[in-house]
């Protein structure tokens, strides 16, 4: 399926605005694995005829890694540059598949003049499922574990939408030992994904992956590009990468759509 996604500049040239700006994020743009998530989500939106656009080359990093690593000056430079572009296009609603982008756009941009309705893609997909807009194939029931992202769960209190998706797809939801408010971090937050871990008895992603293995599932769903990198790494270290499939919620929805 060929994707033809319009930019905000193209919409503006027609004097129109889409319902959503899809904030792709650095991982969704450049990481080979998460590009597949970006594509899956866009294909879902297009199949449901939901109007959306991207910024394309006008999109820059939200500044989350800079702020988390202590470079406040760089964060504010990146944020204010993005806000200028978003406000120029009169953006009202933003959807993103990255909890880090979600948290920054929603909670940290307002203090710099960027006020938008920001939703995570799990929230939009859950709403579309609940409204009956996503038609499902008949599939054998399978057990799916869900890994709570820190920035989505404990950071923003979004626990139900991802679970509503899994159950709405007629899957058996398997809760991990550490879940919801007691979820276990993948080890990538706070800009840790860009550095080597400190010394310790076990890497956090290895410990988290063991909980996934112990759950007995063959598929784990998540909703964060950082988590995808770390959980896959943990499963690789356990030698379980061929036995347990790691998928984003958008991919899970697409796999089950008619």
Report on the architecture of this protein:
- The protein is an alpha/beta fold.
- It has helices at 8-13, 25-30, 32-47, 64-68, 72-88, 99-108, 121-130, 160-168, 204-215, 225-238, 249-256, and strands at residues 20-23, 52-53, 93-96, 117-120, 143-146, 172-174, 219-222, 245-248.
- A four-stranded parallel sheet has the order 2-1-3-4.
- Helix 10 links the parallel strand 7 (219-222) and strand 8 (245-248).
Brief write-up:
Helices cover 44% and strands 11% of the residues. By secondary structure, it is of the alpha/beta class.
List the helices and strands and how they pair.
Blueprint: H1 8-13, E1 20-23, H2 25-30, H3 32-47, E2 52-53, H4 64-68, H5 72-88, E3 93-96, H6 99-108, E4 117-120, H7 121-130, E5 143-146, H8 160-168, E6 172-174, H9 204-215, E7 219-222, H10 225-238, E8 245-248, H11 249-256
Parallel strand pairs: 1-2, 1-3, 3-4, 5-6, 5-7, 7-8
Helix pairs in contact: 3-11, 7-8, 9-10
